[in-house]
Amino acid sequence: MSDPLFWHRLQFGFTITYHYLFPQITMGLALLIVVLKSIGLRTGRPEFHDAARFWIRIFGLAFAMGVVTGIPMEFQFGTNWAQFSAMTGGVIGQTLAMEGIFAFFLESSFLALLIWGERRLGPRKHFLAAVALFVGSWLSGYFIVTTNAFMQHPVGFTRDAAGVFSIADLGAYLANPWAIAQYAHTMVGAVVTGAFAMAAVGAYWMLRGEHAQVARVSLSTGVVAGLAASILVAMPTGHHQGRLVARHQPVALAAMEGHFESGPRAPLAVIGQPNVEARKLDNPIHLPALLSFIAYGDFSADVRGLNDFPEADWPTNIELLYYSFHVMVGLGTLFIAAMAVAALLLWRGRLERSRFMLWILALAFPFPFIANTAGWLTAELGRQPWLVYGLLRTAEGGSPTVHGGSTLFTTLGFAGLYLVLGVLFLMLVAREVGHGPRALDRPAHG
């Protein structure tokens, strides 16, 4: 624990995990707000505009939190990861700059118009502002994911004699196949979060007998979008992402599945406990040959186990990687089941009267945050021990002059600050939920 690299990794992992709680809901809500505004504009039904107005306010709160919690991550590139920044800044700096210059300003500018400009803009221009907000939000997501994808599967670069990276082909860098697959999976996962949040608030209002029309809109929109996104996050986006891992990071695939021995017809581990010291999976429940099919599309395909790779190339925390992957997959399966039942009840006109299902939806909203966090843990733990996969090791990227005590001190400071900000955010969201939707001609209170 005295190794400064451990504390550098812990601090970045903590701050980015906390930060991503907010972009995932804003990116998910950005699409759903466009859907609500579109239906309201097409049908003329005011409850859709009222629902969109409420969710724009929630978006604004989450966006502000995302900005505040994102700032410390940027500083860490210079403070904790100076070697990494010096080596790769010529590549990853491009997309990080593009995210700030293009996407962030587009998103923030039109958010202001959405919150305060509806009366002046009118329905059609306000809808176009929602579309611009969506484009900015999802464009921001693409630039960030492309930056991460270079670390997972580096393309479009060159290195000089000192080992410093620079862009050789900007088009190849921006169109990285890993980035496209990871982006699709990430954004659909964000829609799952936004949809579950929307369904939860609608269900809560239904249980309390409040704001019936807007509650019905939020509930039905959240359930339909939640079912579609929960399916898409598994197939095809998650499946395609898994195929890329099998092709380009086979050691990560083996660790994710607790798969130690190579061979054909590799089984899929539904559950088990990875015993790294003994190089086996304890108490496994296996589905025969399914891992071979998922990874390579062939039940008889050979899947390499961890024993085929040098231990120096194994992910540095196989246990956490294994459990993160299985938590993500397990929760994703439950999301499909829960939303399928809710959608069936909605189609039959019985969802609003099913208090049991309404309670499930109202209480389920934290779990997509957990699933998305587990998904990113899977990606980042699977990349270890590399910062740039196969080219730059994590141990080579730290700041040698920043000792562990300083990093731990600032981490504790971030934890205290984030606790205060988190409580404030929850209070403000609860206040908005308590106030409920507001019609355009009704002044805000409180």
What would you note in describing this structure?
This protein has helices spanning about 5-45, 45-80, 80-115, 120-150, 170-175, 175-210, 210-235, 235-250, 250-255, 290-295, 320-345, 355-365, 365-385, 405-435; strands spanning about 155-160, 165, 265, 270-275, 280-285, 300-305, 385-390, 390-395. With about 450 residues, the chain is mainly alpha-helical. It contains 14 helices and eight strands. Helix 1 packs antiparallel against helix 4 (about 120-150), helix 6 packs antiparallel against helix 7 and helix 7 crosses helix 11 (about 320-345). Helix content is about 70%, strand content about 5%. It has one domain (about 5-435).
Q: How much helical structure, as a percent, in the residues?
A: over 70%
Helix/strand class: mainly alpha
How many alpha or pi helices?
Answer: 14
Number of strands: 8
Domain count: the total is: 1
Largest sheet data: 2 strands, antiparallel
Query: Largest sheet, order of strands side by side?
Result: 1-2
Global geometry: globular
User: Which spans have pLDDT < 50 for at least 5 consecutive residues?
Assistant: 442-446
Order of helices and strands: HHHHEEHHHHHEEEHEHHHEEH
- The value of Rg in angstroms is 23 Å
